[in-house]
Each structure stands twice: as C-alpha cells, then as structure tokens.
Amino acid sequence: EVQVVESGGGLVKPGGSLRLSCAASGFNFNTYTMNWVRQAPGKGLEWLSSISSGGDFIYYADSVKGRFTLSRDNAKNSLFLQMNSLGAEDTAVYFCARESTNDINSWFDPWGQGTLVTVSS
Amino acid sequence: DIQMTQSPSSLSASIGDTVTITCRTSQTIRNDLNWYQQKPGKAPTLLIYAASNLHTGVPSRFSGSGSGTDFTLSINGLQPEDFAIYYCQQTYSISFSTFGGGTKVEIK
Lengths: 121, 108
Prior knowledge:
The structure holds two protein chains of two kinds.
Chain A: E1 3-7, E2 10-12, E3 18-25, E4 33-39, E5 45-51, E6 58-60, E7 68-73, E8 78-83, E9 92-101, E10 106-111, E11 115-119
Parallel strand pairs in A: 2-11
Antiparallel strand pairs in A: 1-3, 3-8, 4-5, 4-9, 5-6, 7-8, 9-10, 9-11
Chain B: E1 4-7, E2 10-13, E3 18-25, E4 33-38, E5 45-49, E6 53-54, E7 62-67, E8 70-76, E9 85-90, E10 98-99, E11 103-107
Parallel strand pairs in B: 2-11
Antiparallel strand pairs in B: 1-3, 3-8, 4-5, 4-9, 5-6, 7-8, 9-10, 9-11
C-alpha cells in the first residue's frame, strides 16, 4: 500500500523548534517530489514547501522561508521538516504529500493523516 | 504569486442535486488544476487531476472542466458521503503551489 505517515508534532512554546518526519512506504520514494501542506484550525490548506526527488531543488512559501528547512533521506524513505522560530500562527495540522506527475501535470496523492503542531506558552 | 478564487465558499444542497464549484486563477495555468475533497478530521483526498481527469476510484458523478483561468468541479447527483469541503489547487508554478479557499458543501 502506498502511504506516507507523519510524526513529530506536539506542543511547543513560542520561539521554539520542532522537527517533523514523514515516513514513506509502498513506492519508490527516491523518484518522487514531496511536499508539506498545513491547515490551521478551521482554516483552509496552505502549501509550505517542496523538495525534488534527489533533494536538489527545494522551495518554500514566503510564510515559512528562513524559518523552516525541508530535507529528505532517500536511503531511509523519509522526509523531514525542521521548524524554527515558531509562533502562534504556525499552529496547524501538518500534512506530508507525495507529488505525482504524468510528465506534464502534477498533483498530490497520497496525503498522510497529518500531525498537529500547537504553539502556545 | 498565483491567486486562487474559489466560489462559493459554502453551499446547501439536497441529495440528488447537481452542484457546481468554480475556481478562478489570477493568471493562466493551462490545465494544471486539481480538486480535493476533505472530510472533518481527515486528510484531503484527490478527486480530479489536470482539470478533468478522474482519479482512480472516484465515482463518475464527479467531473472537472476548464483551462486557462476558469475551472469547475461538478457533482452530478449529490450523495450523502459527498458532504465535505472541496479545494482547488494549482500546480502550474514549479516553485510553489496554491490552494483555493475551499467550498463547504452542506445538507439542505
């Protein structure tokens, strides 16, 4: 079964750091671009970051640029999101998603179940 | 950045109704537009990719159309399990993706 599973969420104080992980299984992880998307409580989806299959190209949303760092370990089929300088506005469920493509278009599937990050004192 | 305007933000409909949701982008994105369904407490799931392609396992009552800047998602014959929030997404830009604000489909 193709799946991705996030972990690492929790309660963190403002200004603190947290590292999220995403474990992939059921597909050739090293051939897919991967993404993080978050959803604040009661809000819509916000794309955060993507990393190419080999890790050569990494992109960030302006809202997290300079604070979040995306990386991957293809040998361990894992994706990581290092989050620093966290603020209340970062409170959200964080989803990991595989980016599939037909060489022309791309889409996100599957998504993980999400991991909740709460930033509060 | 590419802005996404999804409408309506919410709608009420009855079982069996046909529902249409629109997504407009601030610049042309060819057909690089996807639709997702999200139920409470769950992750989004892919419905339609590349504007009009039905994802594997998605019922045929769902359909997508459009290209350029204007796109639609239609549900032909709403079923109880279709009450959810629907999001459009552009993947035209190689360096960022954007989601629409979502449309909540509720029972009338």
